[in-house]
Amino acid sequence: MPHLAHIALVVRDYDEALAFYVGKLGFELVEDSYQPAQDKRWVVIRPPGAPATATTILLARASTEHQAKYIGDQAGGRVFLFLATQDFARDHAAFTAAGVEWVRPPATYDYGTVAVWKDLYGNLWDLVEFAPGHSAAAGA
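Now predict its structure.
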């Protein structure tokens, strides 16, 4: 059955993005290999503790001016990625300690607890702990 393998996140610089996601937030580096035919790197990360079969994030360095225009605005100002957790308080505290900029404070809704944060480029992310019984809760 088809499934999403990777989501591309356009970045300015591979090492800068790795320093933020891996160094600061504790994401796992899955792969970082040079692709000589295209003179680029294949850099794949995943959230800490995510299963090996989970969809990963491909850090895709912008290689044209057109691509560079979308760094930090891949979703037109809306939340772009949804980081599910089973322990909101733990992860919110860890991200806060790492210096993450929170755009919206934690709030609880019928679907769960959520707060919105910005990555180093300005992309918006939800940190969300889905409520028990929610359709997405099993994937957290």
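The first helix runs from residue 14 to 24.
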